Amino acid sequence: MSGNGKTHIAVEYAHKYSKDFPGAKVLWVNARSAEQFERSYKVILEDLRISNKGGNVLKSVQRHLGQDANGNWLMILDGVDDEEALYTAGPPDQGKGKGSENKSSALDYVPSSMSGRVLITSRSMSLASSLLHQKSEYLIEIPTLSDEDALLILYGTIPKDTAKNQIALELTKALSRSPLAVSMAASYIRAQGPEFIIRKYLDLLGGGTPKLSIESEKAELEQAVEKAWKISYKFVKEKDAEAGRLILVLGALNLQTVRTFFLAKGMDAGARFNEHVSLLVNLELVQQSEDRTEVSVTPMIQACAQRQVAQSDDPVWAGERALALVTAAFPAAESEEFETCEILYPIVSAVLKLQPKTTAGKNDRAALLFKLGGYNGHLGKLQAAVKYLNDCLKLREEQPNKDKALIDEVNKALEKVKEEQRRAESAPEVAVSSPGPSDEKTSAWDSVVGKVQSVMRMTPQSMSPEQHKEAGEKIRAELDECEKSLGKDHEETLRKAEGLASVLHKRDPKGESIAIRKRVLDWCMATYGPRSLDTIRQTYNLALAYDVQGQYDEAAELYRTAFEGAEKLLAPGSPELLRILSSMAVVYVAQGKMAQAEEALRVALAGQQAKLGPDHPETLMTRQNAALAAQAQGKFDIVEQDLVHVLRAQERFLGPDDEATLRTACSLALNFRLRGRHKESEALYNLVLNSQQKTIGPAHPDILMTRLMLGELLQEVGKLPQAREEYKIVLEGRKIAFGEKHPDTVYVKKRLESVK
User: Fold this and answer.
1) Residues with Cβ < 8 Å from 336, sequence gap 6 or more?
2) Among residues 70, 255, 369, 670, which one has the fewest Cβ atoms lying within 10 Å of its Cβ?
3) Are residues 372 and 449 in the same domain?
4) Do 10 and 134 have their domain in common?
5) Domain boundary pick from 209, 225, 242
6) Could you tell me if 249 and 263 are in contact, meaning their C-beta atoms sit under 8 angstroms apart?
């Protein structure tokens, strides 16, 4: 039944299980809906680093925990109350009409193992019996509150006074023996002071208690909690109006657990926030975590709060207040408060389900959508950014009193995202930093001073060789014109030179980009000095140019110079500082300096996970590089787990056909090859190659790399004619892109000669 302490009993059992089985995994699953069930399984998959080969999170977790070798575990399925809510639509049945669907229940994926146990909490006796296949010996029905327990809740002891006991039991009966309702009553009575007696509470219960229009087995207990809620809420509202508003906002969020920092910042009299929460805790309306960073609200209290708002004169107030608080707390993209954004994302999802009615509420929703657009754009999730910004624009244009400045702000942000897309197409793997300030946009490659873009910010649409050549010719012409009209050392001229280096990146057979970036660096050195952040960023860009050309000693030295300079100017854990460190680590791997590489990757990965979040594109790239460094040392099993983790995250956030996703799939195919799983490796290489051929040009460096790796596999398994054909294609492509003498070109030439 609802409100009888099922979750608390589950927590106590979990503590006991952990003591009985030291080291056992305790896994908590929110089973109120299929969506929350799957979200809990995703957390389990991430925490236990479970391989998700088939892309089905539920099945992968079930398969992993179903193996006895994976140790002891306890899974708590909390709140299995509505079986229908746990069904999800599957693919259409074959042979049936259009629109027909298979429906699978999340409960089908509950694991079974000799090493594991499952504890289910439910308000439905029939559902619980069904889940246990009518095996009543495993069914524990929590009894109604006993007289002894009721006395302990109300008095803290068993009184010897018969009259006191009798009045307490009368109250218990009036509250249908609901532990939650009796606990709320006891807390209310204590809050009133020693002069307040139980008889007075009974009098309050007798006056105009509400009737709920509910006809079910749980109606009686819900009615009891509703009675206790009315009394407690009236007291809270009179004693601390802000605490009264807080519990209504928590109810509107409809989340079982909420981080409270954003509420503390936005509520009136924020300095007294802990006092507001303490009052609610003392009255059993919320529970607070030990570190005071989270509060939990039971579904019963949420329902009471929602009905309270619905019956008020302003039924939309609480939802719009929650929206306003989240909007105010969600950081702007330029603040780089990435961890805060990650923490708030579940709450953002909840408030976006609310549909504001007032103009103020719609303005808050638009502001939140705008921030989400900026944040996703910063992450490189450009399609998501465009969607949020378009939704924001639509909302602002629908307002009766249109604010032109706000509409222009959205249009400007949309144009910026599109500019990022064009820039990514022209130079997908180069960090861009244009010298000198400029407010004019003179080409698709211009950027803000000092802005070093993410190495992982890419789009599936890459330029064909013809488009690349056309872009190069255009920017060369613009550079020549600037040199003639403005001079070689003018800021705008250097900006054009930087743009040309970006276009040449990774398709530079003559190595021109190195000379251009030296020129830009020399200009920054003369203009700003060696300690300027702009100079340091251009040092990093020159290191990238050497890196791409395979000149690793020069690249490593420049990366070190850039890192040492940036370390003095940027805060510890700065994403830019970590990006330089990650690039330096990759060069260490190429040089065979594995100890230095491992340490640099460890520091970079830890910093990016803390600052950017575990699924940020740059974090995933560093994790992939760390996996490949481990693979070079023969740690194949660990590498597969890490690569699968990265691949799954990239598929979710970047898409299955994104260039970065496909590169990770190639790395996984290499892992299969090195472990002797040749059929799986070849199948995965061909799958990647087919996807790349649909999305990027045939001469793209990624396609050439996939073909090279496939050729090496084919040669290894004795398919020499096929290997030879792949090597020929790669050799011609690399001659065009890098020239005859580039180390990568020389390597392919040697591979081709080895199969003749």
Assistant:
1) 575, 611
2) 70
3) no
4) yes
5) 209
6) yes
Q: Which residues contact 397 (CB under 8 A, 6 or more apart)?
A: 407
- Strands 73-78 and 25-30: what pairing? parallel
In a domain, residue 259? The reply is: no
Residue 602: inside a domain: no
Query: Residue 751 is inside which H or E element, if any?
Result: helix 743-754
Please give the Cα distance from 330 to 636 (Å, whole number).
Answer: 41
User: Would residue 140 be called left, alpha or beta, if left means φ above 0 and alpha means ψ between -120 and 50 degrees?
Assistant: beta
Is residue 171 in some structural domain? yes
Residue appearing with tokens 């089973």: 31
- Element (H or E) spanning 568, and its range? helix 552-569
Q: How far is residue 230 from each of residues 238, 267, 287, 304, measured CA to CA in Å?
A: 12, 23, 19, 8
pLDDT for residue 230 is more than 80: yes
- Neighbouring-strand partners of residue 87: 105
Q: How do strand 73-78 and strand 116-120 relate by DSSP bridges?
A: parallel
Q: 524 near 535, Cβ under 8 Å?
A: yes
Do the Cβ atoms of 575 and 538 come closer than 8 Å?
no
CATH number for 676: 1.25.40.10
Going from the C-alpha of 114 to that of each of 95, 106, 190, 347, the distances in angstroms are 39, 21, 47, 37
Taking the mean position of all CA atoms in its chain, how far away is CA 348? 12
In contact, 659 and 694? CB cutoff 8 Å = no
Whether 224 is in a domain gets the answer: no
Residue closest to 664 by CA, chosen among 626, 693, 633, 698: 626
> What token pair was written down for 679?
């059929």
Domain count, the chain: 5
Tokens of 477: 């012409």
Same domain, yes or no, for 364 and 437?
no
| Alpha carbons 267 and 265: distance in angstroms, whole number | 6
| Joined tokens for residue 278 | 């303490």
- For 707, residues 6+ apart whose C-beta sits below 8 A from its C-beta are 689, 726, 729, 730
CB atoms within 10 A of CB 400: 5
- Residue 177 DSSP symbol: T
502/432 Cα distance (integer angstroms): 7
Residue 299 has pLDDT above 50, yes or no: yes
Q: What are the pLDDT digits (tens) for 349-407?
A: 778 888 899 999 999 999 999 999 988 887 777 878 889 999 999 999 998 888 999 99
Global pTM reads 0.52
Say whether both 127 and 151 belong to one domain: no
CB 286 within 8 A of CB 301: yes
The alpha carbon of 411 is separated from its chain's Cα centroid by a whole number of angstroms, namely 27
Given a contact cutoff of 8 angstroms between Cβ atoms, the answer to whether 4 and 142 are in contact is yes
β pairing state of 257-259 and 294-296: antiparallel
Q: How far is CA 621 from the centre of its chain?
A: 15
Which residues have C-beta within 8 Å of that of residue 603, sequence separation ≥ 6? Answer: 578, 581
Identify which of 691, 714, 717 has the alpha carbon closest to the alpha carbon of residue 702: 691
Residues 706 and 740 in one domain: yes
Label residue 443 by pLDDT band (50, 70, 90): very low
Distinct helix (H) and strand (E) counts, the chain: 32, 8
Give yes or no: residues 11 and 85 share one domain. Answer: yes
Cα–Cα dist 187/285, whole Å: 10
Q: Do 669 and 756 have their domain in common? A: yes
Two structure tokens written together for 284: 């059993």
Residue 441's pLDDT band, with cuts at 50, 70 and 90, is: very low
Query: What is the distance, to the nearest Å, from the Cα of residue 706 to the centroid of all Cα atoms in its chain?
Result: 29
| Count of residues in the chain | 756
Last residue of a domain, one of 403, 419, 435: 419
Structure tokens at 589: 């791997």
99: its two tokens: 């629109």
Q: Is the pLDDT of residue 83 over 50?
A: yes
Alpha-carbon gap, residue 562 to 558, rounded angstroms: 6
The residue segments making up the domain with residue 100 are 6-138
Q: How far apart are CA 117 and CA 109, in angstroms?
A: 14
Q: Kindly state whether residues 36 and 100 are assigned to the same domain.
A: yes
